[in-house]
C-alpha cells in the first residue's frame, strides 16, 4: 500500500518556525485537509510536500522512499497552487498549447474544456475570464497526467456550487483509483475528508 | 535533451504568440541606431567611430528592457512552479532560458545589424568583426541577465533596481566589445559568466522555492 508519511516536519520561513513538528500518515485512497488561519503555513506545507521547498527538518516518505532521495518523485504528484499558471495576454487555446509542451502530450482541447463547461471561452484571452473560470482552467491540469498524489492549494476558491461538485467528484474518483489528495483550506468545507492537519 | 528542447520551444512559442512585445524590443533597438546619423550628421569617419559604441549600448538596453521576461513573468503567473515541478533539473531550466532569451532578443538584432550599418557607411569587412564580437558578447550578457533575473525574483517589478545591478555587470562586455581584436577576452568573459550564472541562477531559483 502506497502511503505518504510525514514525520516531525519542521520548516523555517526566514526566521520564523512555520511548521512545528507536523506528523501524519495518509494512505492510498485518502483525502486529507490542511486547515489553519491565514499565514499559518498551509501553502508552505504543500510546497514542502511537493519538494518546491527542500530546506526542512524531518522526513517525508512516499511508498517508503524519502522524497529527498527519490529522483523520480516529481513525476508522482500534481500541484495546483493559488496562481493559475496561465498567461493573461494569451487565449485559452494558446495557453493549452503551452501546457501541451510542459506535459509532453497532445491535448484534446474540446473534451478537456467540456469538463467545466469552458468550450465557449476557447478563443478568449485569459484576462477576460472570471476568477472562477481561471480556477477551473487551472484545475484541468489534473486531467493532463495520471499521478498518485494531488496537492491542491485552496482549490474551491472562486468556484460556484456546480463546479465545486465537479471537483469533489474528481477528487473522489482519484481516491477510488488509489490516489491521495491533500487540500488546503481556511474555510469550512462541505466535504468529508479522511483526516485533517490543523496548523 | 528533450526537456531542454521543450522549454526552449515553450519560450519561443510565447514570444511568437506575443509578437507585439517582441517587436517593441526590436523597434527600440532600430530606433536608437537609426536616429544617431541624424544627430551626428553625415561625416562618415565620425559615424564609423560611434557606430560600435551605439550598437553595444543599444543591445545592453534591449537586454535590460527584456529582463522581466526571463523568469519574472513565469514567477508572476505561477508558471515557474509548474516548470519546477515538471522538470527536476534547475540547470536544464536555466540553460533553456539562456538559449531562448538569446534567440528571441539578441539574434534578430544581430541579423539586422548589416542592414543598419548601411546608414553608417560601413563595408562588410568593417561589420564582420563587430558581428563576431556581438555574437560572443551578447551571449555573455544574456548569461549575466539570467542570473540577475533569478536572484531578484522576489523583488516586485523594480526594473530600475535591476538595471542598477545589471548595467555595471554588462560594462566589461561593452568595453571589450567595441575593440575588434578583443574577441578572445569576450569568449573568456562569456564562459566565466556562464559558469557563474548556472550557480547563481540555481541559487536564486532555490531561494524562490523556499
Task: Looking at this protein, list some descriptive labels.
heterodimer, A: 199 residues, alpha/beta, Rossmann fold, 5-stranded parallel sheet, 4-stranded antiparallel sheet, 5 helices, B: 210 residues, mainly alpha, 10 helices, elongated
Quick description:
The complex is a heterodimer of chains A (199) and B (210). With 199 residues, chain A is of the alpha/beta class.
- The whole-number mean of residue pLDDT values of chain B reads 86
Tell me about the biggest sheet of chain A?
5 strands, parallel
Low-pLDDT residue intervals, each spanning 5 or more residues of chain B: none
CATH topology of chain A: Rossmann fold
Instruction: Give the helix level of chain A as a range of percent.
Output: 25-40%
How many structural domains in the coordinates of chain B? 1
Strand/helix succession of chain A? EEEHEEEHHHEHEE
Shape of chain A: globular
Q: How many distinct domains of chain A?
A: 1
The count of DSSP E runs of length 2 or more, i.e. the number of strands of chain A, is 9
* Rg calc of chain A: 17 Å
Strand order of the largest sheet of chain A: 6-7-8-3-9
Strand and helix map with partners:
The complex is a heterodimer of chains A (about 200) and B (about 210).
Chain A: E1 3-13, E2 16-27, E3 31-35, H1 42-49, E4 57-62, E5 65-66, E6 77-80, H2 92-103, H3 109-114, H4 131-139, E7 149-153, H5 161-176, E8 180-185, E9 195-198
Parallel strand pairs in A: 3-8, 3-9, 6-7, 7-8
Antiparallel strand pairs in A: 1-2, 1-4, 4-5
Chain B: H1 2-17, H2 19-40, H3 44-65, H4 72-77, H5 79-86, H6 90-105, H7 107-116, H8 124-151, H9 159-177, H10 183-209
Helix pairs in contact in B: 1-6, 2-3, 3-8, 3-9, 6-8, 6-10, 7-8, 8-9, 8-10, 9-10
Structural description of this entry:
The complex is a heterodimer of chains A (199) and B (210). By secondary structure, chain A is an alpha/beta fold. Chain A has one domain: Rossmann fold (3-Layer(aba) Sandwich), CATH 3.40.50. Chain A is 26% helix and 28% strand. In chain A, the strands form two sheets. In chain A, strands 6-7-8-3-9 form a five-stranded parallel beta sheet, with helices on both faces. In chain A, a hairpin with a 2-residue loop joins β1 and β2. Chain A is globular. Chain B is mainly alpha-helical and 210 residues long. Chain B has one domain. Chain B contains ten helices and no strands. In chain B, α6 crosses α10. The longest helix of chain B has 28 residues. Chain B is elongated. The model of chain B has no long low-confidence stretch (mean pLDDT 86). The interface between A and B is medium-sized, with 30 and 22 residues.
Amino acid at each position: 500500500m502506497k502511503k505518504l508519511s510525514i514525520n516531525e516536519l519542521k520548516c523555517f520561513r526566514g526566521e520564523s518556525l512555520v511548521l512545528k513538528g507536523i506528523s501524519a500518515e495518509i494512505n492510498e485512497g485518502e483525502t486529507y485537509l490542511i486547515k489553519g488561519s491565514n499565514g499559518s503555513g498551509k501553502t508552505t506545507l504543500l510546497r514542502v510536500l511537493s519538494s518546491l521547498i527542500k530546506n526542512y527538518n524531518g522526513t517525508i516518505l512516499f511508498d517508503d522512499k524519502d522524497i529527498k532521495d527519490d529522483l523520480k518523485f516529481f513525476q508522482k504528484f500534481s500541484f495546483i497552487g493559488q496562481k493559475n499558471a496561465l498567461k493573461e495576454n494569451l487565449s485559452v487555446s494558446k495557453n493549452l498549447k503551452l501546457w501541451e509542451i510542459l506535459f509532453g502530450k497532445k491535448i484534446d482541447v474540446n473534451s478537456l474544456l467540456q469538463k467545466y463547461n469552458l468550450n465557449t471561452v476557447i478563443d478568449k484571452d485569459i484576462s477576460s475570464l472570471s476568477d472562477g473560470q481561471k480556477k477551473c482552467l487551472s484545475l484541468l491540469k489534473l486531467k493532463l497526467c495520471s499521478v498518485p498524489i494531488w496537492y491542491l492549494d485552496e482549490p474551491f476558491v472562486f468556484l460556484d456550487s456546480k463546479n465545486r461538485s465537479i471537483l469533489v467528484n474528481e477528487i473522489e474518483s482519484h481516491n477510488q483509483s488509489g490516489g491521495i489528495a491533500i487540500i488546503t483550506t481556511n474555510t469550512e468545507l462541505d466535504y468529508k475528508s479522511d483526516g485533517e492537519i490543523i496548523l | 535533451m528533450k526537456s531542454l528542447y521543450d522549454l526552449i520551444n515553450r519560450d519561443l512559442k510565447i514570444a511568437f504568440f506575443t509578437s507585439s512585445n517582441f517587436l517593441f524590443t526590436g523597434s527600440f533597438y532600430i530606433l536608437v541606431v537609426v536616429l544617431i546619423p541624424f544627430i551626428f550628421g553625415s561625416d562618415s569617419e565620425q559615424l564609423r567611430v560611434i557606430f560600435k559604441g551605439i550598437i553595444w549600448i543599444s543591445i545592453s538596453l534591449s537586454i535590460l528592457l527584456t529582463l522581466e521576461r526571463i523568469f519574472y513573468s513565469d514567477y508572476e503567473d505561477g508558471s515557474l512552479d509548474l516548470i519546477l515541478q515538471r522538470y527536476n533539473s534547475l540547470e536544464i531550466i536555466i540553460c533553456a532560458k539562456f538559449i531562448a532569451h538569446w534567440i528571441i532578443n539578441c539574434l534578430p538584432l544581430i541579423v539586422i545589424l548589416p542592414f543598419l550599418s548601411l546608414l553608417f557607411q560601413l563595408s562588410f569587412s568593417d561589420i564582420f568583426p563587430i558581428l563576431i564580437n556581438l555574437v560572443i558578447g551578447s551571449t555573455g550578457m544574456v548569461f549575466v541577465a539570467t542570473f540577475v533575473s533569478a536572484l531578484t525574483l522576489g523583488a516586485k517589478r523594480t526594473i530600475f533596481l535591476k538595471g542598477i545591478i545589471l548595467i555595471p555587470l554588462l560594462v566589461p562586455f561593452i568595453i571589450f566589445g567595441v575593440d575588434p581584436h578583443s574577441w578572445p577576452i569576450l569568449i573568456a568573459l562569456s564562459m566565466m559568466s556562464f559558469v557563474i550564472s548556472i550557480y547563481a541562477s540555481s541559487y536564486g531559483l532555490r531561494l524562490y522555492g523556499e
